Known about the structure:
The longest helix is centred in the N-terminal third of the chain and has 12 residues, at 13-24. The strands form two sheets. The protein has a four-stranded mixed beta sheet with strand order 1-4-3-2, covered by helices on one side. Strands 5-8-7-6 form a four-stranded mixed beta sheet. It has helices at residues 13-24, 53-56, 78-85, 123-130, and strands at 5-10, 29-32, 35-39, 44-49, 70-74, 91-97, 102-108, 114-120. 24% of the residues lie in helices and 36% in strands. It is α/β, with parallel strands linked by helices. The protein folds into two domains: 1-65, Signal recognition particle alu RNA binding heterodimer, srp9/1 (2-Layer Sandwich), CATH 3.30.720; 67-132, 2,3-Dihydroxybiphenyl 1,2-Dioxygenase, domain 1, CATH 3.10.180.10.
Amino acid sequence: MKFASIRLIAADITAMVSFYEMVTGLSADWLAPVFAEIVTPGATLAIGAVETVALWKEGSAEPGANRTASIEFQVADIEAEYERLKDKVPLVHALKTMPWGNRTFQFRDPEGTAVSLYMPVTEEARARFRSR
């Protein structure tokens, strides 16, 4: 099985797509007026307008309701990314090193989903990612 994507449902798809283009530095592929994808080397971030929910089942997803998942992006230079984004995003926490060896900071997207950028900084953490 291959992990392919995370899909976010957005009340304001234009704002969400613009936000993630700014965060990732990548351009979205608009596959329909109500659906866009930002393809990264590891997986795809799919963003659907609230109107797309009914294509699966009415009421099966709700924009702005996520408080259980966090979207994480591994970066090459966490300090530079923090400096670039700290005044552009609503920070949850500033830079810190987690017990498992990743240096990270976290913020929220326009609909409230937690987003973390991280970089493995301990030898154990770097080794874990080299083996993937």
